[in-house]
Design goal:
alpha+beta, ribosome biogenesis, 5 helices, SH3 type barrels, 179 residues, RimP_C, Ribosome_maturation_RimP, 3-stranded mixed β-sheet, cytoplasm, 5-stranded antiparallel β-sheet, globular, 28% helix
């Protein structure tokens, strides 16, 4: 069980995307999915609203993306939270997925991750290493064998994602539930 402060941590969206996430989250949850990330990008001409989802067990099928896309599209059509035209993309987080929730740092322990901090800690903004897990509200990374582990407060993390490595690919090909 995660501490309340850690469980509240989420980097799933910001700005206008956070507004959209708040709007669509109940519908996505009612369909049996969790939001991994909502992101609005792609420039001014034709922005893309990307909604990454998964089931609580981490699984996802193309039919799931279609169902969520239809439901979210209908809701966004009515509520119209985004000015102008945009593309809606509902997808899986993929194998080298973003780590956006506290539970992601536990679930993906043992795999390599890249973390970008909001502000430098000890002169560093980017840290890459094997994800050890989460202790309280600190993410623990091992940068290299023989080096001390790095502790990063969840609140200091701006972005984090898994690194595509042979270990991660092998786990994905073996059909392991967490890869």
């Amino acid at each position: 069980m995660l501490p309340a402060e850690a469980a509240a941590f989420s980097l799933t969206s910001e700005g206008k995307a956070a507004e959209v996430e708040r709007l669509i989250a109940p519908t996505v949850a009612d369909l049996g999915f969790e939001i991994v990330r909502v992101q609005l990008g792609g420039g001014q001409r034709r922005p893309t609203l990307q909604v990454m989802i998964e089931r609580p067990d981490g699984s996802l099928a193309i039919e799931d993306c279609v169902a969520v896309s239809h439901a979210v599209s209908a809701l966004l059509e009515v509520e119209d939270p985004i000015d102008g035209a945009y593309e809606l993309e509902v997808s899986s987080p993929g194998i080298d997925r973003p780590l956006t929730r506290a539970k992601d740092f536990l679930r993906w322990a043992g795999y390599e991750a890249k973390v970008e901090l909001k502000l430098p800690i000890e002169g560093r903004r980017r840290i890459k290493g094997r994800l050890i897990g989460l202790e309280g509200t600190d993410v623990i990374l091992a940068e290299a064998a023989g080096q001390p582990q790095v502790r990063l407060p969840l609140s200091a993390i701006g972005k984090a994602k898994l690194v595509l490595t042979d270990d991660l690919l092998a786990a994905g090909q073996a059909g392991e539930p967490d890869a």
